[in-house]
Amino acid sequence: MRLSQHDIDAIKTVVADVCGESAVVRLFGSRLDDTAKGGDIDLMVELDEAVEHPARLSAWLSVKVMRATQGRKVDVILAAPNLEELPIHRIAREQGVILSHE
């Protein structure tokens, strides 16, 4: 995984502050490949409750995580009971890694 512990902790803190402690954050995509270079940070945030404005929440999380990780580009998808399940959600669940404080 090509994220520092500082970045992982920053991501977890931002998501907990914005979405609550029960939110689960998964990293997926190119940052899981230790041999790759560069790439944005792809995150899936899983929520237990319905999201009223998912596009706004996703954008807000992206900006806050970008600021917390020294300006790295961040893409955030949301999974919640009221949101449509797309193929990208399945990919994130199958290939992604849940971020945790170590």
From TrEMBL:
Pfam families: NTP_transf_2. Residues 22-84 form the Polymerase nucleotidyl transferase domain. InterPro entries: NT_sf, Polymerase_NTP_transf_dom. This is Nucleotidyltransferase domain-containing protein. It comes from Halomonas mongoliensis.
